[in-house]
């Protein structure tokens, strides 16, 4: 933690590379290369990527980083710190120049705030801004204040000089639980407050530690933003649905579903689709990287995915129903219930209209005056003249 | 017996070729696609437990069901694209200009269809060779729902495909809050088709029953039977230039009296 103390640390960090820092802490070259290989595999790089990652970590100066915490539970930081791989936590604590973060900062009060100010002035346009948590905009931002300033003020000031922004977790990406209806504090994701800066959305509640590390290593290695999808998430980790990488997927295609959590199908490990599993609509790496060092992930332990890396996943509930409730129609009103009611009303309306038609259009229905059939067989001459196409 | 001699002349009928073969083909292929998409769509939303206690490797019915849904979606899209094309090259009843009541005569017709057929506060006979203006407008709304269903469906499908076409719609996802939110709306829009079909089939029967112009069979053969005399006001826009074919062709005009 000594590196987090101001002034001395800032200067020493300028001249060291990640590799120098690691070896000075007793990490062997072998372990370092293993980490590089593992990281490039996570990022989806080819075998030549290992060398690129290793070279970058050996030669490039560490990036100054400001890590802000707003409306959040710190589970993103926790996820990162509790990664099974020691070097992952080291990246956060040592390898990047974590100049300011409320949670891990040894300094406090004015001293801490001066570090922030120092960093954003000294490294203007160079530092990386990591944000954990959403920003409340209701009541002029009073719901989240640090050092007497609102989160809205802080983010605006710090983001102005940032090279790029990483939005950690669902809070920063889409507001998570505090933005769930009715969102009393107007919790707002970072991308709706800051414009004109590249923002990487590292989704999840929390994101997988290896994914967070992968994004940082990518920025360090290539010095540019990783390829992002339509929602700003790195494609390396969020291009596939949990469903597509799920080991239970063959059961889905075969139509083998768990019908209740205590049935025989659940014991056999069938697909949890009908138990409300959000795997088919959730983009994340849980099925491949998994959690806690690749030990397991929710579906492997018999519970459906709740879609924590998707925006407004709290409002897409209930978690154990396949079809979510529909907004604006009250709890438990699904699209099917709405459709059935409107459909039934339509049938009743059409039936009523049919009855009305027979009453109101009594004279229009059937034979009309002058039509050939009405003339009968005795006036067949008149009938044939009609068929012949009389013109007036 | 024939006490309506003067009006007999006015209710002579002629056959009018309204729905060209491509339009009829589009209609029935579209109906088939919607039927298949709705059925497979509901199965995707809530699959029945039809095979349990078996090994996944021996069965693929749900995967097949999804494949049919996606394949039918492609047919639906190209069929719809064809119909739009036909709105520019087809006959005047298929023309795209009919679908929006931008002209005053069309707007007036919408109002009178509401009065005569829906509210039934008037019995003034309405004769429309193609659709009436309100029906055209309804189909325009339906086309918008088509576009939404296609866009939302392919947006959700995009990540399962390497084809370029589905990738055109990925912009839908952020607007509707990702796959889960979009899936909800896609599901709800399915009900539009069901309700539309109820009303559509009812009104076809209604018009066939009340007016006797052969609306029901017109989507099979393309012909409608319409009174020969042009109704005042509306007749002009609807009949001018219509390919008139009378039967028998050789019959010469005769006076009824």
Could you provide a short overview of the structure?
The complex is a heterodimer of chains A (392) and B (257). By secondary structure, chain A is an alpha/beta fold.
Which range best describes the helical content of chain B: under 10%, 10-25%, 25-40%, 40-55%, 55-70% or over 70%?
Answer: 55-70%
N-to-C order of helices and strands of chain A: HHHHEHHEHEEEEHEHEEHHHHHHH
pLDDT averaged over residues of chain A = 82
Helix/sheet category of chain B: mainly alpha
Q: What is the rounded distance between the termini of chain B?
A: 14 Å
Give the full name of the CATH homologous superfamily of chain B: Transmembrane di-heme cytochromes, Chain C
Instruction: State the helix count of chain A.
Output: 16
Distinct helical segment count of chain B: 10
Low-confidence stretches of chain B: 1-9, 231-257
Largest sheet of chain A: 5 strands, parallel
> Any idea what the shape of chain A is?
elongated
What's the CATH H-level superfamily name of the largest domain in chain A? Answer: NADH:ubiquinone oxidoreductase-like, 20kDa subunit
Question: How many beta-strand elements of chain B?
Answer: 3
Provide a descriptive summary of the structure in words.
The complex is a heterodimer of chains A (392) and B (257). Chain A has 392 residues and is α/β, with parallel strands linked by helices. Chain A has two domains: 2-236, Rossmann fold; 240-346, Cytochrome-c3 hydrogenase, C-terminal domain (Cytochrome-c3 Hydrogenase, Chain A, domain 2, Irregular), CATH 4.10.480. Helix content of chain A is 39%, strand content 8%. Chain A contains 16 helices and nine strands. Chain A has helices at residues 8-14, 18-24, 29-42, 48-59, 75-81, 86-95, 109-122, 151-160, 169-174, 209-222, 235-238, 249-253, 264-268, 335-360, 372-375, 380-387; strands spanning 64-69, 97-101, 128-132, 135-136, 145-146, 149-150, 164-168, 187-188, 199-202. In chain A, the strands form three sheets. A five-stranded parallel β-sheet of chain A has the order 2-1-3-7-9, sandwiched between helices. Chain A has a two-stranded antiparallel sheet with strand order 4-8. In chain A, strand 5 and strand 6 (149-150) form a beta hairpin. In chain A, helix 2 (18-24) packs across helix 6 (86-95). Chain A is elongated. The termini of chain A are far apart. The model of chain A is unreliable at 1-11 and 374-392 (pLDDT under 50). Chain B is mainly α and 257 residues long. Chain B has a single domain (11-46, 59-245), classed as Fumarate Reductase Cytochrome B subunit (Up-down Bundle). In chain B, 60% of the residues lie in helices and 5% in strands. Chain B is built from ten helices and three strands. Chain B has helices at 5-10, 21-45, 61-89, 104-118, 133-157, 164-167, 172-175, 178-211, 215-221, 235-239; strands spanning 13-17, 223-227, 244-245. A three-stranded antiparallel β-sheet of chain B has the order 2-1-3. In chain B, helix 2 runs antiparallel to helix 3 (61-89) and helix 4 packs across helix 5. Mean pLDDT of chain B is 81; it is low at 1-9 and 231-257. At the A-B interface, helix 12, helix 13, helix 14 and helix 16 of A face helix 1, helix 3 and helix 8 of B.
């Amino acid at each position: 933690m000594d590196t987090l103390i101001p002034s001395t640390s800032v200067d020493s960090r300028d001249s060291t590379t990640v590799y120098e820092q690691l070896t000075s802490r007793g990490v062997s070259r072998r372990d370092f290369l293993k980490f590089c290989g593992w990281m490039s595999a996570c990022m989806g790089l080819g075998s030549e990527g290992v060398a690129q990652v290793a070279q970058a970590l050996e030669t490039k100066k560490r990036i100054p980083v400001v890590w802000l915490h707003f409306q959040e539970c710190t589970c993103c930081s926790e996820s990162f710190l509790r990664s099974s791989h020691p070097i992952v936590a080291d990246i956060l604590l040592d390898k990047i120049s974590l100049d300011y973060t409320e949670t891990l900062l040894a300094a406090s009060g004015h001293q801490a705030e001066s570090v922030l100010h120092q960093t954003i002035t000294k490294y203007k346009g160079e530092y990386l801004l990591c944000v954990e948590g959403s920003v409340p905009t209701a009541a002029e931002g009073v719901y989240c204040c640090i050092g007497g300033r609102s989160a809205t003020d802080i983010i605006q000031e710090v983001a102005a000089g940032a090279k790029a922004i990483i939005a950690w977790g669902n809070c920063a990406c889409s507001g998570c639980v505090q933005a769930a209806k009715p969102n009393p504090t107007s919790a707002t994701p970072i991308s709706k407050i800051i414009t004109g800066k590249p923002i990487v959305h590292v989704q999840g509640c929390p994101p997988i530690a290896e994914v967070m590390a992968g994004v940082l290593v990518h920025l360090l290695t290539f010095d540019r933003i990783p390829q992002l999808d339509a929602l700003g998430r790195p494609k390396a980790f969020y291009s596939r649905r949990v469903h597509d990488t799920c080991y239970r997927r063959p059961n889905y295609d075969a139509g083998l579903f768990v019908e209740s959590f205590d049935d025989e199908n659940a014991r056999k490990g069938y697909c949890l689709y009908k138990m409300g599993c959000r795997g088919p609509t959730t983009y994340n790496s849980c099925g491949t990287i998994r959690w806690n060092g690749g030990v397991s992930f929710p579906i492997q332990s018999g519970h459906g995915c709740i879609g924590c890396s998707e925006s407004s996943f709290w409002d897409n509930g209930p978690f154990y129903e396949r079809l979510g409730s529909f907004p604006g129609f009250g709890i438990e009103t699904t699209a099917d219930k709405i459709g059935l009611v409107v459909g039934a009303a339509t049938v009743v309306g059409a039936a009523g209209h049919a009855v009305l038609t027979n009453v109101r259009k009594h004279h229009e229905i059937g034979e009309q005056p002058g039509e050939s059939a009405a003339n009968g067989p005795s006036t067949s001459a008149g009938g044939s003249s009609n068929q012949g196409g009389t013109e007036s | 017996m024939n006490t309506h001699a003067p009006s007999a002349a006015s209710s002579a009928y002629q056959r009018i070729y309204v729905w060209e073969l491509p339009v009829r083909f589009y209609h029935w292929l579209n109906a088939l696609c919607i039927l298949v998409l709705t059925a497979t769509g509901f199965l995707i939303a809530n699959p029945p437990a039809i095979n349990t206690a078996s090994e996944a490797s021996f069965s693929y019915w749900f995967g097949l069901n999804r494949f049919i849904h996606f394949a039918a979606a492609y047919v639906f899209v190209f069929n719809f694209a064809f119909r739009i094309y036909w709105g520019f090259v087809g006959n005047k009843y298929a023309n795209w200009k009919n679908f929006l009541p931008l002209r005053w005569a069309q707007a007036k017709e919408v109002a009178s269809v509401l009065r005569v057929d829906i509210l039934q506060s008037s019995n003034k006979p309405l004769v429309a060779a193609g659709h009436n203006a309100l029906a055209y407008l309804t189909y325009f709304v339906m086309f918008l729902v088509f576009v939404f269903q296609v866009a939302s469906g392919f947006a959700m499908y995009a990540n399962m495909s390497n084809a370029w076409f589905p990738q055109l719609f990925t912009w839908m996802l952020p607007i509707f809050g990702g796959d889960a939110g979009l899936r909800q709306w896609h599901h709800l829009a399915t009900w539009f088709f069901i309700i539309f079909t109820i009303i559509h089939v009812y009104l076809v029967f209604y018009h066939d029953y009340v007016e006797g112009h052969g609306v029901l069979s017109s989507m099979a053969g393309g012909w409608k039977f319409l009174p020969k005399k042009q109704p005042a006001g509306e007749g002009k826009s609807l009949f001018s230039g219509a390919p008139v074919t009378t039967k028998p062709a050789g019959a010469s005009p005769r006076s009824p009296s």
